[in-house]
């Protein structure tokens, strides 16, 4: 994510004099007497990326960065060793590989998910490897959304969902998860209104994007919630894009249920995973999708006309990583098991130090993000020093510049009519070294006690 944000920042700095940083502003076409070389209409409604703006802030003010979601410690050694060995080994593994996925990796992915979903997956026709889960989302959306098709997204959402749907010609229908309690609560307490949710479905509804485990809430959708979603998708013949990149970060006693395993859902579900999340190596930008061959085929056509193929050494190393983990999957030392245990301790520590200084955190059931209500601390910050429309932007910028701790404003993950729902919150990332989290706690305690 950091690399993606840096690339976007460079894009905005160099590609057009009209790229204006600001959460409420739009990309505008540059002009020197004509609109001939302006931004195509399909992108003119694209919103400014929160990552562009906040990476720029981090580079300028150098705060302790709990904003971007990446570890500040190494991935498992067997994964990085595999990459080194591959790059310095068989020279053919530094050349192009199969466009839709390196043979060894799609075999490993098919073997793993066949076990986990209880269904035999065809590695060559039901798996597609992509440049990160981000490109899997792009392929899935562009491979299925046509002009006028409606797509349902659940707020707060990963920010690219909205712009990808819009640029593909789709119509976004959004519905927010809302807390059913106040104070220090669980992510399970954020729920959909089933009546309002059902009203979104109609004959134009083509797609629903379901993110579970959820970013930024850490919510794990439970069986009753998934059943409600599945029943409506079957009733209205809707495709589900299941963004499940945090699948191995679920805290006991919660269980991750893949919606594709529910009755009648395999044939209408594309499920997305990520090597960056799975192996704590976000810079690898390697993702995948599995699902029925007819839906994968649509994604393949987008894929072959955009990136065509992914980096061979990364795919070979990821395959080795999967093979290693599958050999010890049910053992306590499996990274797929131990990561959740490690993150749960970090989650609990962050929840404690945030609570001690007046935040009201939502305790996540999974993942490595935590949102916290900061509204009781409003008297500790001077929001008049910032000019953004939404309070969470002003709060996070004030904290970045004056307290030297950076978080992300959650209103970035809502459509415009619902951005007010995120204004009283901030998102922090806790997949950090213990000393980093300790430093964050010290910064907040010093600020709070002043």
Task: Report on this structure.
This protein has 450 residues and is α/β, with parallel strands linked by helices. The chain is 38% helix and 14% strand. It contains 14 helices and 15 strands. The chain has helices at 2-14, 50-61, 77-87, 103-117, 132-142, 160-167, 194-199, 223-235, 275-278, 293-304, 312-326, 335-356, 391-403, 434-449; strands at residues 64-65, 127-130, 150-155, 171-176, 178-179, 185-186, 190-191, 205-211, 239-243, 269-274, 287-290, 360-363, 369-373, 405-406, 425-429. A seven-stranded mixed β-sheet has the order 2-11-10-9-8-3-4, with helices on both faces. A four-stranded mixed β-sheet has the order 6-12-13-15. Helix 6 links the parallel strand 3 (150-155) and strand 4. Helix 4 (103-117) runs parallel beside helix 11. The chain is globular and about 60 Å long. The protein starts with a helix and ends with a helix. Mean pLDDT is 92; it is low at 1-31.
């Amino acid at each position: 994510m950091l690399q993606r944000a840096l690339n976007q920042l460079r894009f905005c700095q160099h590609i057009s004099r009209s790229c204006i940083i600001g959460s409420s502003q739009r990309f505008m076409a540059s002009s020197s007497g004509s609109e001939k070389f302006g931004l195509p209409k399909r992108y003119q409604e694209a919103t400014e990326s929160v990552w562009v703006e906040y990476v720029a802030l981090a580079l300028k003010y150098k705060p302790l960065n709990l904003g971007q979601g990446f570890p500040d410690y190494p991935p498992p050694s067997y994964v990085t060793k595999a990459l080194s060995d591959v790059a310095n080994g068989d020279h053919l593994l530094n050349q192009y590989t199969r466009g839709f996925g390196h043979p060894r990796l799609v075999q490993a992915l098919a073997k793993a998910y066949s076990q986990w979903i209880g269904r035999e997956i065809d590695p060559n026709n039901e798996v597609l490897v992509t440049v990160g889960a981000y490109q899997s989302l792009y392929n899935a959306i562009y491979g299925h959304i046509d002009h006028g098709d409606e797509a349902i997204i659940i707020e707060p959402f990963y920010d690219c969902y909205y712009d990808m749907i819009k640029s593909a010609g789709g119509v976004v229908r959004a519905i927010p998860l809302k807390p059913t309690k106040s104070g220090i609560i669980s992510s399970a307490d954020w729920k959909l209104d089933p009546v309002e949710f059902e009203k979104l479905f109609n004959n134009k509804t083509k797609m629903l994007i379901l993110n579970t485990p959820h970013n930024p809430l850490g919510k794990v959708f439970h069986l009753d919630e998934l059943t409600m979603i599945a029943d409506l998708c079957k009733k209205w013949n809707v495709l589900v894009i299941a963004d499940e990149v945090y699948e191995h970060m679920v805290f006991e006693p919660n269980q991750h249920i893949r919606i594709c395993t529910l009755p009648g859902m395999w044939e209408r579900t594309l499920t997305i995973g990520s090597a960056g999340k799975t192996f704590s190596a976000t810079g690898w930008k390697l993702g995948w999708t599995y699902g029925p061959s007819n839906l994968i085929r649509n994604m393949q056509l987008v894929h072959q006309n955009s990136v065509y193929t992914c980096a061979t050494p990364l795919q070979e190393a990821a395959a080795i990583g999967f093979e290693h983990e599958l050999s010890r999957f049910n053992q306590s030392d499996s990274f797929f098991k131990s990561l959740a245990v490690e993150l749960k301790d970090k989650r609990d520590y962050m929840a404690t130090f945030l609570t001690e200084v007046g935040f009201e955190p939502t305790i996540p059931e999974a993942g490595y993000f935590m949102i916290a209500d900061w509204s009781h601390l409003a008297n500790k910050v001077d929001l008049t020093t910032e000019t953004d429309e939404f309070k969470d932007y002003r709060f996070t910028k004030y904290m970045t510049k004056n307290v030297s701790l950076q978080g992300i404003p959650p209103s970035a993950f809502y459509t415009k009519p619902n951005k007010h729902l995120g204004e009283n919150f901030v998102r922090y990332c806790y997949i950090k070294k213990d000393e980093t989290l300790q430093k964050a706690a010290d910064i907040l305690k010093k600020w709070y006690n002043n």
